[in-house]
Write a structure and sequence with these properties.
Blueprint lengths: L5 H13 L1 E3 L5 H10 L2 E3 L5 E4 L1 H14 L3 H11 L5 H10 L9 E3 H8 L17 E3 L3 E5 L4 E5 L2 E4 L1 H7 L2 E4 H5 L3 E4 L4 E5 L2 H6 L6 E5 L6 H7 L7 E5 L4 H13 L4 E2 L9 H4 L1 E2 L6 H4 L5 H9 L1 E2 L9 H12 L2
Parallel strand pairs: 4-5, 11-12, 11-13, 13-14
Antiparallel strand pairs: 1-3, 2-3, 6-9, 6-12, 7-8, 7-10, 15-16
Helix pairs in contact: 1-5
């Protein structure tokens, strides 16, 4: 019997505290051992055993021999408001460990793993020390215009080189937070693109900067866009569904008033590519857009995804017109 196993130790604490022990596959060896000693008996509930008089008399001695500090541990669990479980014992042990010196910036899961129950637990804002910045460390995928230069501190990166070699420039969150600056040839226009397929597959004019804007994860793109100021113009291209238009509304509230990119020929795809909504269009959206294509979709309770139109020759022409108009 491995008496160092936290599941076994917690089960013994619960048996002493409550007089009950639930049957689980993990505890099967422990239960068989206690049954062989004659310390527990089957209760009226099928999956539950209870301690008997013999067990109540003998259990403390067993626990003293295998775990001399069990009484102090149980008291500390009570004082900390932790349950007598394996997780509670682990939390108690973690609470007693000193937190190492923290840097000014730390990934949120690293901080949660050090100070919380585990890396995926939610940490209350009050637990974050003053001066510590927690990051998600996402990345921003971009397809820059020709001639754009990025500056990070004293370092200079011409985007033309990674564009020729890789087809994209990836910006880590921390670099954007540190204040990436832009220079060289600025784009004539910027376009945020909701879905990954159109972002990588659409024909891009040299003067256009594309930014992948994945759904509601807007923080990085908005922060990077601020590096360009009020110029150049910003256009958003996304699905014509409730969520896609809600994301556009959010960007419009938070950013520098993007234009909704609606190529006129998109209406030609409505009959063959539109899909029925499972629900109805929200009033917050139907009352905010007057474009004819959107009005037709609202009336038909239908939506269009952006992927089918990007290889249409007219799409390239619309991008060229957009650049020429700037």
């Amino acid at each position: 019997m491995n008496w160092l196993d936290l599941e076994y130790r917690a089960a013994l604490l619960r048996l002493w505290e409550t007089g009950e022990l639930r049957k689980t596959q993990k505890l099967r060896p422990l239960i068989e051992h206690l049954l062989s000693l004659g310390w527990i008996t089957q209760s009226s509930r099928q999956n539950e055993l209870t301690i008997n008089e013999n067990g109540s008399a003998q259990l403390p001695a067993l626990m003293d021999s295998i775990w001399p500090l069990w009484r102090q541990t149980l008291q500390r669990l009570r004082e900390a408001g932790l349950p007598p479980t394996a997780a509670g014992l682990q939390d108690l042990a973690r609470a007693g460990r000193p937190v190492p010196s923290l840097p000014l910036r730390l990934h949120n899961k690293t901080f949660a793993a050090l100070t919380g129950a585990h890396s995926k637990c939610s940490m209350p804002a009050a637990s974050i020390p003053p001066g510590l910045s927690l990051t998600a460390d996402g990345v921003l995928r971009t397809r820059p215009n020709r001639g754009l230069i990025l500056y990070a501190g004293q370092n200079r990166l011409s985007c033309d080189d990674p564009m020729r070699a890789l087809g994209e420039v990836i910006l880590p969150e921390r670099a954007i937070l540190d204040g990436v600056r832009v220079g060289g040839t600025l784009p004539r226009a910027i376009m945020t693109v909701e879905n990954l397929g159109p972002f990588v597959d659409m024909p891009k004019p040299d003067e256009l900067l594309l930014i992948h804007q994945p759904g509601w994860n807007t923080a990085l793109s908005l922060l990077f866009l601020r590096a360009f100021g009020m110029e150049p113009s910003w256009h958003h291209f996304g699905d014509l569904d409730p969520e896609g238009l809600a994301i556009y509304q959010h960007l419009k509230r938070e950013g520098e008033k993007p234009h909704l990119f609606l190529p006129p020929f998109w209406d030609d795809y409505r009959e063959s590519f539109s899909r029925r909504l499972c629900d109805t269009w929200p009033e917050a959206i139907t009352g905010s857009f007057s474009e004819p294509l959107l009005q037709k979709l609202f009336s038909a309770n239908a939506w269009l995804e952006q992927e089918p139109i990007i290889l249409d020759e007219r799409f390239k022409d619309e991008l060229a017109r957009l650049i020429a108009s700037e």
